[in-house]
Amino acid sequence: MFRRLLHKPGFTLVELMVVIAIIGTLVGLMLPAVNAAREAGRRVQCQNNLKQYGLALQMFHADYGTFPVGNFKNKWWGFQARLLPYLEAKNIYNLCNFNYRGSCFDWVRIQPKGMNPCVMILSHDKCPNDPLTDKVYHDAIYGDYACTNYLGVMGTSEFLNDGILLHGDYSSAISLTKITDGASHTIIMGERGISNELYGWPYCGAGDVYGTGNGDNLMTTKLGLSPGLNDGNHDYHFWSYHPNMSQFIWADGSGRPLTYDIDFKVFQALSTRAGGELADAP
């Protein structure tokens, strides 16, 4: 009696290779779309971080009648530290002694371990695209300092005081009534990548050699808006890890990006509170 052989259907090697090639092609076509979707998500998260600051600035203004001083002269406490209670970080705010007789650096230097507010950076300070957001600068004498991606706009120059968040004393605090160009026409904060020098300390930072906070927690628009690298040569202009743009918020709390191809004069006009230009974002 002969057994009948049953021939089961299956793939040939050639057919299997064709299927694998098709799948590989489809994956290759999908990857750019997936990467674009991920970048869009990170961009939205970054914008939301700035919007949290925008809301905090509005609440501060509602309580005090002015925006905070951008960077306090000779004390170097940054406005970001003053906003901590409005960012649900009262515990960190309580570690900042704004009335200490010395500078913020002197205060940080004498803090016991675990009590240094300058390393307690919030998620609102971190762009998800930036690989250096969790790095901490260490100084054996003056202590440790973490960085932010979001700096206040001090205007077209660190010396003209034509922006909103200025270096100075309490008399330098700007109210909405002084923003005659219009709150919806004036930027108040923007985004910059963190350099490998770990430059950009929000709560306590003197900034440039003039000690104006420029480059640490404040920034001017005098160098325009352009692509940057984290090599330490791009500490004094706004740039980001997002393709072709940086995120900004306006004095009315609204937020939107500005692209690198923005006209330099328009960008500077957006950073002045009373220049009479009435510039708007393109």
Write the layout of secondary structure elements.
Layout: H1 13-64, E1 71-72, H2 79-82, H3 90-93, H4 104-109, E2 136-139, E3 143-146, E4 150-155, E5 167-168, E6 187-191, E7 218-220, E8 245-250, E9 255-259, H5 264-270
Parallel strand pairs: 1-5, 4-7
Antiparallel strand pairs: 2-3, 4-6, 6-8, 8-9
Q: Can you describe this structure?
A:
- With 282 residues, this protein is α/β, with parallel strands linked by helices.
- It has one domain.
- The N terminus is likely disordered.
For the termini, the CA-CA separation is 88 Å
How many structural domains? 1
Strand content: 5-15%
Order of helices and strands: HEHHHEEEEEEEEH
Task: Please give the share of residues in helix.
Answer: 25-40%
The whole-angstrom Rg is 25 Å
- Averaged pLDDT, please? 90
Largest sheet: 5 strands, mixed
Find the structural class using helix and strand composition.
Answer: alpha/beta
Strand arrangement, largest sheet? Answer: 7-4-6-8-9
Query: What general form does the structure show?
Result: globular
Poorly predicted tracts of residues: 1-6
Give the tally of β-strands: 9
With helices defined by DSSP (H or I, 4 residues minimum), what is the helix count? Answer: 5
